[in-house]
Amino acid sequence: MALTGKTLFITGASRGIGLAIALKAARDGANIVIAAKSNVHQPRLPGTIHTAAAEIEQAGGKALAVACDIRDEAQIEAAVAAAVARFGGIDICVNNASAIFLAGVAEMPVKRFDLMHQVNTRGTFFVTKACLPYLKRAANPHVLMISPPLDLNPRWFAAHTAYTIAKFGMSLCVLGMAAEFAPDGIAVNALWPRTAIATAAVKNVLAGEEGLKHCRTPDIVADAAAVIFERPSRDFTGRFLIDDDLLAAAGVTDFDRYRVDPSKELMPDFFVPETMRPPDGVRLAAEPSTGDSSGTGKALMDIGIEHVSNVDGFTD
Question: Which one of the listed residues 101, 163, 192, 271 is annotated catalytic?
């Protein structure tokens, strides 16, 4: 019960990976601050800060739902102030909120470029800044970015330079902040899924309903995040971690339980370097007994580029 009584400030926690991390911590008895935009129900997006709060309370945690657009520094500061007023401090900051719009240079609208950079890089930076005074007082403080390893292969830039810059901006925050905060004993790490994760973003923007069958559930990222939060913050920092690598090193052997549909091949996620191979015994192919090993034949990046052209952006 390492997180009992700890306070987590999680952006974008009304659904998907953010909510999964929140629920995992709630089962340990943690306090969760749900800082997200979704204050009212939207037909295409399941969950709001209020439904997330109810789930967290039911799971055994304490919840504070705060409507917060992290593009607005005043809203960030108000959300952090509300968290401290309710729970007395902040032990862990999770920068999960992210915006995506996959397009080349010629097709990229200015407003979508700005949205991605304001949410992904700028939002991550200023949420962390607002939490920093309280993290300095915490016993084992962690900052976690849901962002990828910094692999400068042109493959990750060629079709969507703007998105890659915005997402890598979160990872560059890890690089700089881990070094800057080291004297204060604050860990700053990045965590990224090896495969596509079954979220509203994948369904609505990237791969559709069928694509969800080729995903892992958000629980794998939540379980990996829990491993990170248990590590000593002074020693475990500045790392770019892949979910199944970390869990395998922690002793997890059953990864099939994270698959949405074991009969389907898993789609690789964006940004995972070729040098970061799956751990021994972890397979991305379909379960052999099903006889369906064809999968999608594509990575999430390739499917997303085809699918997103008719979508008006997405923030999760």
Answer: 163
